[in-house]
């Protein structure tokens, strides 16, 4: 009985943490948006006068000048050029950051699979686990999503696959494309997920007995976040497993429609 009470208490604590994390994350996104707006408008204010300085200095450089004047003008041109580069860097950094709180739009899921695989490879290799992206999953049409949501979905599912993989095995990513959807299959050779658990692993805090018994680290939150993120971009996720020999997570994205109807 005390065990159950303790578990409930733990559950409440975790729920409170999740709520707080969500509130903080909303606050953070708003601040981050304000910061990006600020950076973008400052950069814009700098661009116009800078272009004027560079333009006139370059024109001056093409006129008759004595050696000292030429040295001065060259210095102006060189330094204004440097300043221009900095401003461009600032602008593109602000744009990248703003992208992460973007509305869903067409993006390359194939590229993101490659990036996530590269990020996980070092950890996986330390246990002899390989990450294989099959040709079907490396060249893919665009899907609807945001950089942030698609990256987090793939990172969660693929790092679970690595985490539950036995030493010296492989995680294999493949894909199936049709008119409306792009389906990714992330397959591992781990313990699998019993049929009875397959619906529930996407619930918050749910972990299979196997994961708890083997003391595999985790919170049971990852897959619930995955489901929420996919809901936000019109995608879905399910798992296939016979409960013994590995799991295959199927992630379904909406395919972005080409503007060209002939396509
Ligand atoms: P966590 O991995 O932090 O426990 P998740 O929400 O990501 O939380 O996963 C919930 C549970 O689903 C895991 O505890 C585990 O029982 C099961 N699970 C997820 N991915 C796999 C997998 N690839 N193979 C076997 N079980 C898995």
UniProtKB/TrEMBL annotation:
Domain (Histidine kinase) spans: 41-257
What protein is this chain from? histidine kinase
Where is this gene product found? Cell membrane
According to the record, which residues of the full protein are present here? 414 to 676 of 676
